[in-house]
Amino acid sequence: MSVLDRRTLIAGALALGVAPPHAALAGPPASGRLRFTVFRNGKSVGEHVVSFVVNGDSVAVTTEAAMTIKLGPVPVFKYRHHAEERWRGGRIQTLSTRTDSNGKKEAVSASRTTAGVVIEAAGSRINAPAAINPLSHWNSAILEGPLFNPQTGKLMKLTATPRGRGQVRFANGATLAAASHWALRGETEIDDYYDEAGVWMALRGILEDKSTMEYRRA
């Protein structure tokens, strides 16, 4: 599996479309924390943790992801990702991310202005429309709208389609029915699953080499 393939799945990618400018925020769990064990081809390779602080209609979100893929006992790929998001009224206000993908470092920042959202990454500056949001898998409310990749800062060209209910597996092997299943297709192939309250339950993806990546709730 190439580095590009891994980065494409881990970062995720989503749809460009039309979304209500004030879509309701969905996803912060009552516990204030989501922790996933990450599996590649059924083998645990790391974890992805999302923490939430809710204050009225404002939500601060911190994401930490760490993954290591080995060939036998030898690490051949390491990935670290840190993200901080600030949301208000269901819309992103600021975002800051740092990523180390096997030694390649990336940084993205975004902030809402009166005209839209300014995204800065790799020396470039994009003046994006006001309806845009980062692809934050925990927030099912934004899946059908215009999105950008929080790791690269690029606008994404994918579609999100509801597929009804689905079955998910937890890190301990237990299975549970998900209330909603969203299929993300185009630049990548990812399926996200949510419970009745819109809380993120699982992620599954197919890489270009046909290997699989799964996020299972711990």
Strand and helix layout:
Elements: H1 3-11, E1 33-40, E2 43-55, E3 58-71, E4 74-88, E5 91-101, E6 104-112, E7 117-121, E8 124-128, E9 133-134, E10 147-148, E11 159-162, E12 166-169, E13 175-178, E14 180-185, E15 189-194, E16 200-206, E17 212-217
Parallel strand pairs: 9-10
Antiparallel strand pairs: 1-2, 1-17, 2-3, 3-4, 4-5, 5-6, 6-7, 7-8, 11-14, 12-13, 14-15, 15-16, 16-17
Main sheet: strands, sense, barrel? 13 strands, antiparallel
How much of the sequence lies in strands comes to over 45%
Biggest sheet strand order reads: 8-7-6-5-4-3-2-1-17-16-15-14-11
Residue ranges: pLDDT <50 for 5 or more in a row?
Answer: 1-23
Q: Give the helix level as a range of percent.
A: under 10%
Q: What would you call the shape?
A: globular
